[in-house]
Design a protein that fits this description.
By secondary structure, the protein is an alpha+beta fold. 23% of the residues lie in helices and 40% in strands. The chain is built from three helices and 44 strands.
Length: 616
Amino acid sequence: MIKTNIYYAKILSFSLIIVLIIVAGTVSANASTINPIYPWSILGHDNQRTSYSQGTAPKNADILWKTNSIHAGTITIKDGRIFFCSYNETEAGLVRINCYNENNGTINWIKTFRWSDYWPPSIMPSLTISENKIYLTHGGLLYCFDASSGWEIWETSPTPITFGRILSDSPVVDGSKIFVTTSSGDSNAYCYALDTSNGKTLWRADLKGIPSLPTISEIAVLINSYDYRSGISYTECFDKEKGVLLWRQYFIDRINEPKNEEVSNAYQIYQLQSASKYQDTVFVALGSSVYALNHLTGDIKWYSIVSYYVTTTPVITYGNVFVASTDGYLYSLDQNTGELKWKYPLVERVTHSLGCIAAADNKIYVSTGDPAVLYCLNETDGKLIWHTDIGNRVYGLCVADGNLYLSADGFIYAFGSNSISTQSSISLEIVQISPTVLPIQISGSINPPRDGIVEIQWSVDNNTWYSKRVAASNGRYSDSWIPPCNETFYLKALWSGDNIYSGSTSLVKSIVFGGYKYAKLKADFDILRTSNDNLQSQISSLQNDKNDLQSQISSLRNDKKDLQFMTSSLLSDNQNLQSQVTSLQDEKIKLQIGTVAIIALFFIGTIYLFTKRNKS
């Protein structure tokens, strides 16, 4: 009996091992197909609405897979799963939340719920994925679902549900807060911050007019709004912790509003565009102009007038700003100056603010209205790489994990590059002398050795990545990098591949930099030392001036002594002269007396002689 049990135990153990091997092999096979590290988890890719993915992207229009017609809305992708809403004309009043496998387009799960009576069923809400939760708005309600099962966690309405009052699409999740805007088309428009755990309102801020989707920066919530009564557009910035207004910039379009109905409709569309943010700049497309604003003050850095009305939220890549206009062109502007780099003519204008332009891997993907044409352009010069007809209007264009996904004509499409089969690798080496010395040297190699552009990316949270580009020659690249602040940084290198080798991404490496504290102390010390040198120089100059003054005083004192001696001599000479004058005056008096005496004797003698003559 014991031997029998041991025998069955061995068989059971062997069977479990076989099952584990099969499961592991299946997981490994699936994992090797899709490496889900570059998600597109919100409409506009990220909380800054840049519509720019740091991953690779397909070089041709190969369709990897396509779903059946399901009337799908916009797409979000996270952790190897595609999420979107859809509706079925046979299921009146119901909306489906769909979760598909990113690798092959198979169904993971579907959740059905009733749509709002205040929202058209054909307009599907956009989903936001964060921390394995799905957030969406529909009508006046905000929902939270579990991303693994589709089960509802909570629903709430931060504002009374009335006809015409709706919550904005595509809520933004930042940490423990979720941000939405709401408007009823009248003067009452608000931005709400709610708790992600239960949907309770944390704060509410008043807006100037009909709001756009919210955009999140490091410290603030950014919202475009349009006051239809005054015709003035605004970009409003609120502190995301307490909802306090930080700044508000207003805009008056620089070209007169068009009168024909077609463009007037477009005029209403662009007013609801979102702001997008990259590093220290907020980009806003309002009317016929694109603006770059200082993210701390709202001051205008530059503006660029694009022909007619801009219909899309600015798409931001490294050094570029992309927008589409009602004139049927896609425009590329310089991110620092707003100057036009190039423009490309499209077969039809782009009709949606978000979801119709996506950027990745030095490529720009743009889809037009009806007829729907999908373009792939070179980001640098605007040259056409490929284009393909899709059918009807395209929604939810996004690039994730090396593939291009979109919703068009009720289908979900996955585009990839089947022609590339040869793998490559890229390394990243960081030479940091110390945590306080700048710059930091970065280098690496592409294997097999290839020429091209390597994108060096860095992040402080291993989630939001910034990048710079360097050239690789014969497989080697190198550059110097200056961290923007004191922080722990994560770095990686990305090569997009070529027509022979697929792209690759290096391992993520981390460094700790604290040089700005040292640099600040050193700068303060240098300032103090320079100030001390200046003071010493001033003291030396004053000392020289003192010596000069003392020399002048000594010279003046000598001159004084000479003057005193001369004065004394003159006084003595004056006394002698006074004495001589006195003596001369005495002699003068004596002469005067003698003269008088002589004259008197003369008159006496004269009288005597005259008298004597008369007597004789």
